[in-house]
Design goal:
By secondary structure, the chain is an alpha+beta fold. About 30% of the residues lie in helices and about 20% in strands. Bound molecules: guanosine-5'-triphosphate, sulfopyruvate and manganese (II) ion. Sulfopyruvate binds next to helix 7 and helix 8. The site of manganese (II) ion (MN) has 3 residues, from loops.
């Protein structure tokens, strides 16, 4: 389709204005067809960027620039006229100033490149809950990934019509080409020139300088979380960093669970759970993002706005996550994995290593090499419909009614395997005080403990204090129809640094306990931090776990929790008068219970 044929005048004039600034050699409007995917991929193959895999049908391997391997939180901006509206946990710049700086960078940034226009829908095309975005990008890699991760093409333009609303998303890798200049293997800009910018008042996204993941696939973290969370607050719904799954018990009763864990802390794995307890079944609805609205019956309904998985490769195996392994057998893009000599990909934790291959930097690699073969944030991009346990209703625009919310993170100590909140406010308190060790999903230090409220620290599009208040208000609206709230930690370690809990499929045991709590089948034990399983209520049938290890896994260390309460006070103090009083009260109540 040509630019002139676009029916939406606002879209047409925005594209023209952006093209005047970025000066691409041509403009191409994506139709979303498989021929288009193949053509873009062929261009990338011809440039030497994409390597077709002999062992996996219609699949390709990429290696990014070593400087461009993950999200860049330090270069991510939430831009409102007033800094306080971005809040203390976001990087802020004044919108005029930020735009001025970025316009200088965008000027001529697409020279000798094509500007692709990607109309996409987050959520099923045409559904009332879906949002339309249009990404302008100079990266064919982004086009191919967006084809998998979102619903792209002419069908979206048809829904947009002549006067529909869309979120404008401008993206440039920030590497213009001089006439006749040969392209780099992975064009991008140096870190100090990268900007991932959001203007929530205008529903506008500007991204510059990175070609990787959430920095560049703007439907995902930028639109579906940062912009959508701001929209959701204005409109009374929720946009959360949550997986969605359906669990069916042996009697056929269904439970819908939404869980928020920080990046690289187990969402994809839990979403594709293979229960190790008899008669229980799990189906996947989403693995990263949930949009939730209150339905006519007063319950909270969730949809997955995405169409694919952008999943962490390392650690994914037929043992840990067979459903993910089956999802990536074909039509998949791999980034920063090992390429084996026989034309496949490999990563740490997948299987026995190949005798020889090329590592994520393109160097010769053998199991004796000192460095990891795959980057710790190596990823696969795969269509969600390829997941063998994708739920039949996963694209139902009505969504699924949520029974259970789970928060969690990586904590080597302090946090027990599972506890339940006393009520909604206490659950919001648990979410607002979630803490986790940092991972390779962001460029920065790994393994450092930080508060990551609701697993949304890098993704909240407005002041986190206001965000906490929005959760409280949603609870007020939901009343007794609100989901029950739990907190889990699959990552507690013993003194030798070994996991105390087997995790993965065995996490079903914890979910079973939650479902039985929701049904009112069993009581729980009150502890200072919340309700915990009574002895024998957590189903450990067939599991070999040392008694002492299990005790340690479930231990509530009062002294450590008193210390935790002090850290929470410190964390809360950042939010000043934007911190809801109801959460301060929760902290006081926790302290009172700890001192009893
Ligand atoms: P993002 O896509 O970054 O949002 O990550 P995610 O939350 O989907 O994390 P994912 O499921 O991809 O897991 C990240 C890493 O944690 C992988 O290496 C997993 O193998 C590992 N992991 C997931 N679940 C468990 C678990 O129950 N126990 C242990 N020990 N590791 C786990
Ligand atoms: C995350 O970091 O939480 C991801 C990967 O899901 S990215 O799309 O890069 O944000
Ligand atoms: Mn994520």
């Amino acid at each position: 389709m040509k630019l002139e044929d676009l029916k939406n005048e606002k879209l047409k004039s925005w594209i023209k204005e952006m093209a005047d600034m970025c000066q691409p050699k041509d403009i191409y409007v994506c139709d979303g067809s498989s021929e288009e995917y193949d053509r873009c991929m062929q261009e990338l193959i011809d440039l030497g960027l994409s390597h077709p895999l002999k062992k996996r049908k219609h699949s390709h391997s990429f290696r990014s620039d070593p400087s461009d391997v993950a999200r860049v939180e330090d270069r991510t901006f939430i831009s409102y006229p007033n800094e306080i509206d971005a809040g203390p946990t976001n990087h802020w710049m004044n919108p005029d100033e930020l735009k001025k700086t970025m316009k200088e960078l965008y000027k001529g940034s697409m020279k000798n490149r094509t500007m692709y226009v990607i109309p996409f829908s987050m959520g099923p095309v045409g559904s009332p809950i879906a949002k339309i975005g249009v990404e302008l990008t100079d990266s064919a890699y982004v086009v191919c990934n967006m084809h998998i991760m979102t619903r792209v093409g002419t069908k979206v333009l048809d829904v947009l019509g002549s006067n529909g609303e869309f979120v404008p998303c401008l993206h440039s890798v920030g590497a213009p080409l001089a006439d006749g200049e040969k392209d780099k293997k992975w064009p991008c800009a140096p870190i100090e020139k990268k900007y991932i910018s959001h203007f929530p008042d205008e529903n506008l996204i500007w991204s510059y300088g990175s070609g990787y993941g959430g920095n560049a696939l703007l439907g995902k973290k930028c639109l579906a979380l940062r912009i959508a969370s701001a929209m959701a607050r204005r409109e009374g719904w929720m946009a959360e960093h949550m997986l969605i799954l359906r669990l069916t018990n042996p009697e056929g009763k269904r439970f819908h669970i939404a869980a928020a864990f920080p990046s690289a802390c187990g969402k994809t794995n839990l979403a594709m759970l293979q229960p190790t307890i008899k008669g229980w079944k799990c189906e996947t609805i989403g693995d990263d993002i949930a949009w939730m609205k209150i339905g006519e019956d007063g319950r909270l309904y969730a949809i997955n706005p995405e169409a694919g998985f952008f999943g962490v490769a390392p650690g994914t195996s037929y043992d840990s996550n067979p459903m993910a392994m089956d999802s990536i057998r074909e039509n998949t893009i791999f980034t920063n994995c090992v390429e084996t000599d026989d034309g496949d990909v490999w990563w740490e934790g997948m299987s026995e290593p190949p005798a020889h291959g090329k590592d994520w930097k393109g160097n010769d690699w053998t199991p004796a090499s000192p460095d990891k073969g795959a980057h710790p944030n190596a990823r696969f991009t795969a269509p969600a419909k390829q997941c063998p346990i994708i739920c039949a209703d996963w694209e139902d625009p009505k969504g699924v009614p949520i029974d259970i919310f789970i928060f969690g993170g990586r904590r080597a100590s302090v946090m027990p395997l599972v506890h339940e909140s006393y009520n909604w406010d206490h659950g919001v308190f648990m979410g607002s005080t979630a803490a986790s060790e940092t991972t390779a999903a962001n460029i920065g230090s790994v393994g450092a403990l930080r508060f990551d409220p609701f697993a949304m620290l890098p993704f909240a599009g407005y002041n986190m204090g206001d965000y906490m208040n929005h959760w409280l208000e949603m609870g007020d609206k939901l009343g007794d129809k609100a989901p029950k709230i739990f907190y889990v930690n699959w990552f507690r370690k013993n003194a030798d640094g070994k996991w105390l809990w087997p995790g993965f499929g065995d996490n079903s045991r914890v979910l079973k306990w939650m479902c039985e709590r929701v049904e009112g089948k069993i009581d729980a034990k009150d502890t200072p931090i919340g309700r915990m399983p009574k002895d024998g209520d957590l189903d450990l049938t067939g599991l070999k776990i040392d008694e002492a290890d299990f005790k340690e896994l479930m231990r509530v260390d009062i002294e450590a929790w008193k210390n935790q309460a002090n850290e929470i006070e410190n964390h809360y103090s950042k939010f000043g008068d934007r911190l809801p009083q109801r959460l301060k009260k929760q902290l006081e109540e926790l302290r009172a219970r700890l001192s009893k």
